[in-house]
User: Fold this.
Amino acid sequence: MSFDYVRELPSPDHLKELLPVSRATAEMREARVDLIKKVISGDYERLLLIIGPCSADNEEAVVDYISRLAKVQEKVADKILIVPRVYTNKPRTTGAGYKGMMHQPDPSKKPNAFEGIKAIRHMHIRVMEETGLVAADEMLYPDNFAFLDDVLGYVAVGARSVENQQHRLTCSAVDIPVGMKNGTGGDVEIMFNAIKAAQASHDFIFRGWEVSSSGNPYAHAVLRGGVNDKGMTIPNYHFEDLQWIGSQYEALGVQHPAIIIDTNHSNSGKKYEQQPRIASEVMHSMRYDPLVKKLVKGFMIESYIEPGAQKIEDHRIYGKSITDPCLGWRETEAMIYEMAEKL
Assistant:
């Protein structure tokens, strides 16, 4: 074996003893998760807005941002259900670069997953306690879900992970909604297969145990566009795309078919400032086709306090992304109010 075993991580039970969730916070989370499930199933008529930084790199800035979201949530509660993005694991195409707070709780220091796993749990708890909102995170490492299973409201499986069997099987045991993205090449069949797998029951190995799952009926689709073999982006949020994908989706016969539109990544060509336009276009499409209106439940949007992005080596600007560029707060607030007016 060529691994260098640096340090052993705490067990999930030990971490939860160190950083417990109060009964009041747990009850608030349960109620919020129930609302998210009802939006996915169609039993709660709200637009789901999963919104926040590309990656959560600084606890103070993240809590500040989400506190602002919470004030907006109060004003649009009759139209929109906000789920803040607190993404603590960052997938890297080549393996190089910042891998998220779980690896580096301080981006300017060396990786330390032991401190990182404590830092991300602390941040998720603080978000719940101080804002009354329950966050989404990305499932980059399926085993890590056990550290956060009592603090998350939503989990996303990215385009590079969605074809992985362990991700699919782990999601079949998760008790919160799971968004499955289409593959990086735009292949929706990969996404559909992941949804079917996550909604089914399975026997598999998890954290050194033989386990069984009962299936997750709230696993659903997230459309993020793709990139063809020439490196050109292929959006899949246009009206004709949604009609075709919707018809294919309904034919699957899965429970609670639902679509979330990722307005960045290959749908925007990583032109982050286009996200409000894309959301507006999709909402316009929803008015013209009953199937599109029925299936599209909301949006996934990258947003932070300051617009754009900065390099990690000189990350001096508070609330500005150190990974992909994001909408700034001013544009974000205006976009949410505009969305609410259109509903």
Observations:
- The mean pLDDT is 95.
